[in-house]
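Module 6 notes. Inverse folding takes a fixed backbone as the condition and produces residue identities as the prediction. Think of it as a translation problem where the source language is geometry and the target language is the twenty amino acids. Below is one complete input and output pair. Work through it position by position during the lab.
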C-alpha cells in the first residue's frame, strides 16, 4: 500500500455533522485505510457515545474515500454513490465513546462498471480491537441527478 495522507474532506462530499472520517491514510488498487476520531459534534453522538450501528457509516465513508481516491488517481471527478446496505453486519460492541480513534479498512470485493453496484469487505477498529465488520453494498449511478429526480 502507498501513503495517501489526504483529509477526508478532499475525498468526500459530506460536511458538518455527517463528515465522520478524518483522513485517508494509505491505499492501493483494492483497499483503503482511513482514520476518524469520534466527535461529540457528529449527528449520531448522544451523551458522550455513538451507537455501534453508526460504524456502518464510518465504514461506508471509507469505501467512498477509496472510490474517490481511485478516481482522482485517474484524473476523474469523484463519483456519487449511495449506501445500499449489507447482508451481514457484525457489531462487536454496543457503543463507541467520543474521543475514540477509529481505524477503518475497506477492501474491494467487486465493482461492476455495467450496473454501478459495488461490494466491499469493511472493518472498524479501535486500539487494534475489531469493533465491527461488514460486506457493504453501494450503488454508483451513471447519472446521479437523473437517478435522484426519477426516484
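Target side of the pair, the amino acids:
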Amino acid at each position: 500500500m502507498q501513503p495517501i495522507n489526504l483529509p477526508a474532506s478532499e475525498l468526500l462530499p459530506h460536511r458538518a455533522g455527517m463528515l465522520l472520517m478524518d483522513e485517508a491514510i494509505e491505499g492501493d488498487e483494492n483497499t483503503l485505510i482511513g482514520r476518524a476520531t469520534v466527535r461529540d459534534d457528529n449527528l449520531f453522538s448522544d451523551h458522550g457515545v455513538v451507537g455501534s450501528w453508526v460504524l456502518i457509516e464510518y465504514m461506508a465513508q471509507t469505501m467512498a474515500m477509496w472510490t474517490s481516491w481511485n478516481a482522482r488517481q485517474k484524473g476523474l471527478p469523484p463519483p456519487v454513490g449511495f449506501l445500499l446496505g449489507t447482508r451481514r453486519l457484525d457489531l462487536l460492541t454496543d457503543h463507541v465513546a467520543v474521543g475514540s480513534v477509529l481505524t477503518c479498512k475497506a477492501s474491494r470485493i467487486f465493482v461492476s462498471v455495467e450496473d454501478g453496484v459495488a461490494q466491499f469487505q469493511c472493518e472498524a477498529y479501535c486500539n487494534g480491537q475489531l469493533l465491527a465488520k461488514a460486506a457493504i453494498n453501494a450503488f454508483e449511478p451513471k447519472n446521479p441527478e437523473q437517478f435522484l429526480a426519477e426516484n
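Reference fact for the lab report: The mean pLDDT is 94.
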